[in-house]
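Q: Joint fold for the lines below.
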Amino acid sequence: MAQHLSAAARARLAGQRIHHFHGGLRLRHHKKISCDVPLERVPPSERLFVPLLQHGHSDAARSLVEAGQAVLKGEPIGSYCEPDTGYVHAPTSGKVIALEVRPIAHPSGLDGECVVIQPDGEERWTRLEPIEDWQHADPATLGERIRTAGLVGLGGAVFPTAKKVEGAQARGVHTLILNGAECEPYISCDEMLMREQPEKLILGARVLRRATAAERVIIAIEDQMGVVQRVLDSALKTCGDGAVEIVRVTTIYPEGGERQLVQVLTGLEVPSGGLPLDLGLLCLNVGTAAAAADAVIEGKPLIERIVTVSGSGISRPRNLIALLGTPIHDLVERCGGYRGDVQRLVLGGPMMGYALPTDAAPVVKAANCILALTADDLRSPQPEMPCIRCGECMRVCPAVLLPQQLHWQVTNQQWEEAEEYGLMDCIECGCCDFVCPSQIPLADWFRYGKGVLVNRASEKRAADHARHRYEARQERLERLKRSRQDRIAEQKRQLKQSSEGKRKVAEALERARKSRGEDEGRSP
Amino acid sequence: MLEAILPIATLGLLFGLGLGWAARQLRADSNPVVDRIEALLPQTQCGQCGYPGCRPYAEAIASGEADINQCPPGGEDGIRALADLLAREPKPLNPDNGVEKPKAVAVIDEDVCIGCTLCIQACPVDAIIGAPKLMHTVIESECTGCDLCLPPCPVDCIEMVVKEVTMGDWRRPMPAGARANTHGGGGRA
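A: Joint structure:
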């Protein structure tokens, strides 16, 4: 790559050469087990429990329905307070039988409010409004549809897609990257999507290109996904538009991380605290692109997703298309139930996922994978040992941080130093954790530390806000006091000056003197 | 002789004028140490430190009049931050000033409130709205949890309520005990 080119110019060459990022791990893939059988749609469960919290970046949506109300498939049932985060929709037609606080999939283990829907089995859609002329539609119209359809990043981070698209519209992007580099072991929902619904993905890519006004779209896939390339190539011939291309990247964890993928495709690092937008790039998951095709071309909101159900604790691992709100145990049953001594049920992959408290939790937009792990999969519990400063963690860190140093700072509560050493740039991939010979749960420490830094920043903001209000109040009280004093002084002056005033003062003094005289006369 | 004295005297005069001008024009509005101390205080303006607000307490610390362990809302973290800034040893919170409590907000029982406006006058951050003989209420997002509205209330209708953790403001706890020992917390296989 020509070194003299500016960063912006080099970003434009994204995908022409494959670069590397620092560190990473080659992990056993475990994907084939769930890719052998085709996708299957799960029929609506007896009851669907749709959580009103569907993404991690806000509080739950406000319910738009009441118990007893009939809903149609695709009808909005929850709306977020933040305007650009869209809606939660009814996954099927039926009756709302309750609004309940129930266990949901969230790392906190806290219960969340769910809309409980009893499906009527008729799957009656609400009125759908496809954007027929999407190839010539205004980007703002497409962005608005992406928002109202409740699209979020389906790679697991569930960031509202409309926010990303709006950012791209405002700042301009030249390349849209669709992330199909699903690097975490076991997870294969994106691979199955690309294999079975390639046309939808390509159409989604074109919709998003129109919405963001990007010049080209790169669909990044892993070099181990042999079939996918062939399937996508033939789909490109039938419904591509010449601006969509497929790029194969080397399979290494965590390549599917947004920042890592950008680095692999361009050789450029996304700046600390910045976004791929700073390089003129926008990165979205392939599942999100397929959902965008549904939302725009068919008018359907996001009410279902592909979920990988896998792990050695599942009888017949596979990928399922599940309605949001389907209880996870129904998916497990669909896969032949549990097998062996299942020790832990995980939402997400083995590296970045979190343990679910119960399999009654429903499918959410973030649920890319349900993993049932048996005792054999889990590392035998070993006591945590002191850090020996071997530096292994540093070698594998894809964010080029110093995990051993950060661990020292976080455990000793040296927050300013930790921030300075880039704790917020940690992507929580768990590579450091994986290689640590002392069994230190480094990623857990960093998740905790990042939470503390976020809290400290918000406390600082609250304190500054309180100080401004306090100072404004002090100033106001001072001003009121001064204006009162001024008013009294002014009244005094006026009374002294005018003859009418002088007379009144004299009379008042006279009255006072008299009454005093009378008092004195009476008292002895 | 004169050619030696004259330049030195002129220079002295020029520098004197320069310094005099600088002292007037470039004077710092406030003591930077006080500003930095104040930035570490929680701005609850509760007065538990014995001073009428965070700024006066910051001034008292800067002048050496007050110790760094008199702020209960700031708690141990606040004391540590102050100790770091002033290069002193951290010490436990002075129990005479109160104890560290979880963050709470004032809630007015609106059925009992008689609309006396006393709490409005006591609130240091204007977080209570209301009018004479009309019900008052607390703007939750503005309340610093200073407790100052409690004593003046003649009907005791204000209660401090500890804020419940929602999913939006939940943060990962420190890995400890079982989690740290199994090294599998969070599903690491």
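Q: Anything notable?
A: DSSP finds 16 helices and 17 strands in chain A. The two ends of chain A are 114 Å apart (CA to CA).
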